[in-house]
Amino acid sequence: MFTPPPTFAGFGLGLRKEHYRDFLETDVPVDFVEVISENFMVDGGQPRHILRQVRERHPVALHGVSMSIGSADGLDHAYLRRLRALVDEIQPLFVSDHLSWSRVAGFNSHDLLPLPYTREALDLVCRHIDIAQEALGRSMLFENPSSYVAFADADMTEWEFLAAMSRRTGCGLLLDVNNVYVSSRNHGLDAQAFLRGLPAERVRQIHLAGHTEVTDLLIDTHDQPVCDDVWSLYAQAMSLLGPVASMIERDDAIPPLAELLDELAIARCISERAHDLREAA
Amino acid sequence: MTLAELQRDFRVWLTHASPEAARRLDPRAGMGMTVYQNNYRAQLVGVLEASYPQLHAWLGSSLFLEAAIRHIDSRPPHGWTLDAYGADFEATLSHMLPDNPDVHELAWIEWSLSESFVAPDATMLASDRLAEIDWDIARLQLAPSLRQRSVTTNASDLWSALQQQTEVPESEMLATPGGVVTWRQGYTCQLKPIDAIEHEALLSLRDDPRFSALCDALVARLGEEAGIARAGELLASWISAGIVTDVD
Ligand SMILES: [Fe+2]
């Protein structure tokens, strides 16, 4: 039986092409970086070379988007072998993916599609997490996705699903605070209940990101600064959680690194305040 | 509805925009299913644009988008990584623009460069090893990043001009068909047009990697003196370019 990976309290950024230079040539004040695993699950060439160099300077978290842990027709074992090879080389801080699915019958949507929160899906996801963790030889983190539809026949809430999944498989959780906000707004849920419903001791990492509003729906675009509502949700999360690794996720409209470091400074500040309040209490 | 049924319906919605499938998944018919549909298509268009920047510039946005839409409608993604989605875009372009070999060749160049970019690493052959090689039995090892094809147009000139943002020449047929190779030297991708003799010589190494066989083939084609001279020239250029990465 796996247990969630060791805690790491720190502040990091997603490593994006636009900032390779900064990370290779300057001392970027972050405690870790996160990379998209698939971008580096290649045979060779510059991407792997850059990652090796960055790894010499910073702890690296591997964040995947293609495991498709909720596919009814099973996991892709060749994918798991490729990921294992990368894990063995990089010795990452965390290995994560999403509570979602992408593949069905040879088709790959390359999107993080929502699962119904049913007992059937929970059994299947847990079976798959067992297989994946076994194949990687370590425990993983799974992230709550943003979703735009909620299926009618759910047996439980998303946070109940996440909690049960983590308890049964020993995986840790990656809490994306923006995704909590987006999904809660889209489906009329109580974001605070979501946070309180998660097993705080199993959360290892936090994502902070921006979203876009389109005709009454919030869309998880990662192309904006973190908004005030998400910052206050982060403050609440930090008052509930133990030591975690927090980071800003930006995938589009990528600004100069300094702007992201400024956002990260806000996260540090909020986290310290939450910590002080907890100590005082 | 079982999970498998739900996922089948979702696929039909994404690939065929079937309203029945969407209604089964979301009876309230909110905007959510449309968001997934848009994200799916926009992401695939985006990855084709990112994989083929020079082809995009060459065709112009509206023709490129038309090709991308055709590709998405006829070839839904199936690979493990989104980056692989553009692999058979050339086939879609060949259907759509059958009389534009420049476009097919440009697409091939761009895709092969991206494959070379992440192909397995190889080291250059050290020059001090050359003296000790017995060339009568030597077998040439090609870079794992090497890709080649025959060409009939000046597509490699087009690609280079587009990439360097210099004046792009008219596309034209070559006086005699030749070849083009892409490979990676260290971490830098290379593109080179080659003549028909070099193209055949490199192809023949895939079947028979012996340097002596290469010499025989070139002698048969060019005569004793010219054949041996050309074999030596080719070998020297391949070693210094990192196209031949080892000799055993
Ligand atoms: Fe996230």
TrEMBL record, chain A:
It holds the Pfam family MbnB_TglH_ChrH. PANTHER family: UPF0276 PROTEIN HI_1600 (PTHR42194). InterPro entries: MbnB/TglH/ChrH, Xyl_isomerase-like_sf. It comes from the Bacteria. Belongs to the UPF0276 family. NCBIfam families: PRK05409.1. This is UPF0276 protein Y882_10285. It comes from Dyella japonica DSM 16301.
UniProtKB/TrEMBL annotation, chain B:
InterPro entries: DUF2063. Residues 5-90 form the Putative DNA-binding domain. This is Putative DNA-binding domain-containing protein. It comes from Dyella japonica DSM 16301.
